[in-house]
Design goal:
Blueprint: H1 2-12, H2 20-59, E1 71-74, E2 85-88, E3 90-94, E4 99-103, E5 109-112, E6 124-130, E7 136-143, E8 155-159, E9 167-172, E10 185-194, E11 202-211, H3 214-218, H4 222-243, H5 247-261, H6 265-277, E12 280-285, E13 288-293
Helix pairs in contact: 1-2, 5-6
């Protein structure tokens, strides 16, 4: 920008006397060149700002357009399947981003581990599902103050919308709104196909997410939430790697790698033993030597 401005100024300043018959033409030329130089300066400034602003934005922490659930049963992968207990009258299969529940007889259900949350925090559940049948869903819990499943304040039922498209429903869990924070859950049970279903009846479910308020449930976006979790995990991993960074150890590991490449195995073993004394374990991988504290 300084060079462009200087160029415009130098062009505008006369260097020698100009004959009267040429002065008007040269003055006009200098004005034109000066205007072009200033225009170029503005264009370059705009380009510079366009480069700076995105970099400033990308340096900030990412934001995600979603509320966080108090707890979520994520059926978009098979990580939950190992926690199922006492599954009855249905087959469960995880597919591409969701789980299909298929009845093999009437009254299909499964028991799940309980979330570490108080009843007062879990007043609404939001569910993303897909089905073509006129089925109902039901949710049970065992409360520490109220006996077993089926007694007052332990279950809530709703109706699925059989559009064959992905739909969301927010269920008001009035069943346990009277529960005090001292109450604990020991078992949750989901009945995804309630209401006298026949074998072969099915429903696809992506998640059950629990919230304290209906507004939070409405503000929840599953894809944004998953992206947020993945980002936070990446950040945590990067922070851990930064915390474990040690230039001296990195240099010794590099020396050991060079010694092995030169077939100087005695030196490589010496460095390995030296690091071991310092509580460092070297792990040889196809991508190179890694180290960790033990």
């Amino acid at each position: 920008l300084q060079k462009v401005a200087f160029f415009g100024i130098m062009v505008a300043i006369p260097r020698r006397r100009t004959p009267p018959n040429q002065k008007g033409n040269l003055t006009m030329k200098r004005k034109l060149i000066t205007a072009l130089a200033l225009l170029l300066a503005f264009l370059m400034m705009g380009s510079a700002l366009a480069t700076i602003i995105p970099l400033a934005i990308s340096a900030e922490d990412k934001t995600f357009n979603t509320t966080d659930p108090v707890f979520i049963y994520d059926f978009s992968n098979d990580s939950l399947l190992s926690t199922f207990a006492n599954t009855a009258n249905m087959n469960v299969e995880t597919r591409d981003g969701y789980t299909t529940f298929t009845a093999t007889a009437n009254d299909p259900y499964t028991w799940l581990w309980c979330p570490p949350a108080k009843p007062s925090q879990m007043k609404y559940v939001k569910i993303l599902y897909r089905t073509t049948g006129n089925y109902k869903g039901e949710f049970f819990c065992t409360r520490s103050d109220n006996g077993t499943m089926g007694s007052a304040g332990t279950n809530q039922q709703w109706k699925w919308d059989p559009t064959g498209e992905w739909e969301t429903i927010i269920v008001d869990l009035t069943a346990w709104k009277d529960a005090k924070d001292s109450v604990t859950f020991s078992i949750f049970r989901i009945d995804p196909l309630e209401g006298g279903v026949k074998a072969g009846s099915s429903i696809d479910i992506k998640y059950y997410a629990f919230f304290t308020t209906e507004a939070d449930a409405n503000g929840f976006d599953f894809d944004e939430y998953k992206a947020k979790i993945a980002y936070e995990e990446e950040q945590k991993k990067a922070e851990e790697e930064a915390a474990n960074a040690d230039p001296e150890i990195d240099a010794l590991v590099a020396e050991r790698t060079a010694a092995k490449k030169a077939k100087n195995f005695a030196e490589a073993d010496r460095i390995r033993d030296l690091l071991k004394e310092r509580g460092i374990e070297i792990i040889d991988t196809p991508q190179g030597a890694k180290w960790r504290k033990v």
